[in-house]
Design goal:
single chain, mainly alpha, 8 helices, about 0% strand
Length: about 160
């Protein structure tokens, strides 16, 4: 018995995806995530922390984890909540690096990197509540429009 072939579509027929694409593709979102993680290395160098040993110490992680982060060789899901908790708890973390990590947390928890609801929920639950609130506060301050001189001074402190 031979398998039946599907009939050819009529002329002018256009095959459309079942679910239309909204916003950026997954590849674009993952590229944005990798760029943000690589920005951690740039922030460390800008803060004067050079060398893998010093960078690992400043981030509060082991050398191999620091190498993976700085070379953006992490897995597709990005930085884990456990690693982020360790980095944000590090006493020698420079403020610019802390800000970059908090921006990453705010963007990841907002779903900017293509994670589904279950992954976002798992990430938010495993992340220290203090760090999650700090990231959300940073996001609200940096995304709010500057209306007066007081707001301008708050933006200057945060940036």
């Amino acid at each position: 018995m031979t398998a039946q072939r599907a009939p050819h579509p009529p002329p002018g027929f256009v095959l459309r995806p079942m679910f239309p694409r909204r916003g950026a593709s997954v590849a674009e979102k993952k590229a944005r995530q990798a760029a943000k993680i690589m920005a951690l290395g740039d922030a460390l160098i800008a803060a004067g922390v050079e060398g893998l040993d010093q960078q690992a110490h400043a981030l509060g992680v082991c050398r191999s984890t620091a190498w993976t982060i700085l070379k953006a060789q992490h897995k597709g899901s990005g930085l884990s909540a456990n690693v982020i908790n360790k980095m944000l708890a590090a006493p020698k973390l420079p403020p610019t690096v802390r800000r970059t990590i908090l921006e990453y947390v705010a963007e990841k928890s907002a779903g900017c990197y293509g994670d589904n609801k279950a992954q976002l929920n798992r990430f938010s639950t495993r992340l220290c509540a203090k760090h999650l609130e700090e990231a959300r506060a940073l996001q609200s301050v940096t995304s709010a429009p500057v209306r007066n001189e007081t707001d301008r001074s708050v933006h200057a402190l945060v940036r």
